[in-house]
Amino acid sequence: MRKLFFILLSAGFIGAQAQGMGDLFNKAKDEIKKDEKKAEEAIKKGEETIKGNGGVKAPTNEEIIAGLKEALNTGTNNSTAATSKVDGYLKNPRLFIPFPPEATEMKKKLIKLGMEKKVNEFETSLNRAAEEAAKTAAPVFLASIKNMTVSDGMKILKGADTAATSYLKTTTSPELYTQYKPIVKEAINKVKVTENWNPLVKKYNKIPGVKKQNPDLDDYVTKKAIYGLFLLVADEEARIRKDPMARVNDILKKVFGWADTEKGK
After folding, report:
1. CA angle 152, 249, 235 (to 5 degrees)
2. Quick one: pLDDT at residue 51?
3. Domain boundary residue among 9, 28, 52?
4. Together in a domain, 162 and 195
5. Contact, 212 vs 167, CB < 8 A?
6. Model pLDDT for residues 72-92, shown as the tens digit of each residue
7. CA distances from 65 to 10, 158, 206, 251, 263 (A)
8. What is the pLDDT of residue 256?
9. Are residues 89 and 190 in the same domain?
10. 153 versus 13: which is more confidently predicted?
11. Is residue 25 domain-shared with residue 79, that is, in the same domain?
């Protein structure tokens, strides 16, 4: 009888132990199922987010900034290539550098005096100087783009078609002018702008009663040359934003591809 009691007691203990182990196993199994369900929901949510954005995952702010800078780099390279060609400024009505505005009256009077050919030669030399300077403009612009500080890339990305160019212009123009002016001055000397200018100003200043003219040609051509380059960089940025074929590398495709999916939201 005593032996039977111990057998039953042992069986009960083992049964209880087994039941306890079973409870622990079932509890662990339930926790695993919960974790799996959470993981599945997270994956599903991520897939829905990507699917809802045209299959494009949202870029980080760092990626957006990199994409914006790459768009400006691409725009700079294409723009300097276009403007450094012969007639890059001269034959482009949007970029053409005319007689200095403060000397407009001087231009009119000289043409009346039969010096139209000399006037045209001078204007041509202004544009040739800008074209010559454009040959070495890219490194100056690219350095400014690289050093440009952007805190809110998303705001620029979702801004106007030329928002990045406008930001670059606003934040780097003084530095760009300082770096680019010596290049323009060298170009002015190379294409003999001053030699074309001196006979004109000498003739004009001899006219009785006129205001003597002595514009800063280095300053004038530098500002107009930079203006022209910014104009073309803006065109390139707008093209990258609108035309997927203009997105020539992965970062442009990712950033501006995602931006396409966000339009109209």
Report:
1. 65
2. 45
3. 52
4. yes
5. no
6. 999 999 999 999 999 999 999
7. 72, 12, 56, 10, 19
8. 96
9. yes
10. 153
11. no
In which element (H, E) is residue 216 found? none
Query: Chain-centre distance of CA 20, in angstroms?
Result: 66
CB 251 within 8 A of CB 179: no
Q: How confident is the model at residue 185 (pLDDT cuts 50, 70, 90)?
A: very high
Task: Note the pLDDT tens digit of each residue in 201-230.
Answer: 999 999 999 988 889 999 999 999 999 999
pLDDT(257) > 70: yes
Q: Are residues 39 and 66 in the same domain?
A: no
- Residues 133 and 36 both lie in one domain: no
pTM for the full model?
A: 0.77
Residue where a domain stops, chosen among 12, 34, 52:
52
Both 4 and 113 in one domain: the answer is no
Among 144, 215, 214, 221, smallest CA distance to 185 is for: 221
Q: Residues 257, 64: contact at Cβ < 8 Å?
A: no
Q: Are residues 169 and 214 in the same domain?
A: yes
159 vs 85: CA distance, rounded Å: 32
Task: State the burial class of residue 149 (Cβ atoms within 10 Å of its Cβ: 0-12, 13-18, 19+).
Answer: exposed
Q: Are residues 192 and 126 in the same domain?
A: yes
Q: Which two tokens mark 64?
A: 């957006």
Domain residue limits at 18: 1-52
